[in-house]
Design a protein that fits this description.
This protein is mostly helical. The protein contains four helices and no strands. The N and C termini lie far apart (about 100 Å).
């Protein structure tokens, strides 16, 4: 009986010691973020970023990768036609 009581006191002391630890000690050290000036994304790149969201359709049963691939093909075609139109404006 006495050994059981000592065991319970030891377990309680260990738990209390763990709960009273400083919260700063548990936080991982975050690396410094270097501020880089990035060029703004082109319209096509913005559309590609938005097309990545289509992969979430996999969660409800659709083939998200196929949808994303199809959207990227459409964006590529739009880029080509915009470039052709720009080339024709120069004539």
């Amino acid at each position: 009986m006495r050994s059981r009581a000592i065991f319970m006191v030891m377990v309680s002391a260990c738990l209390l010691a763990g709960c009273c630890a400083r919260p700063d000690a548990a936080k991982p050290v975050q690396p410094e973020v270097k501020s880089e000036i990035k060029a703004p994304l082109s319209k096509s790149d913005q559309m590609r970023q938005k097309a990545k969201i289509a992969e979430a359709a996999s969660l409800i049963g659709y083939d998200g990768k196929a949808i994303n691939r199809d959207l990227n093909k459409i964006i590529d075609e739009q880029e080509r036609s915009a470039k052709q139109l720009e080339d024709l404006k120069g004539l």
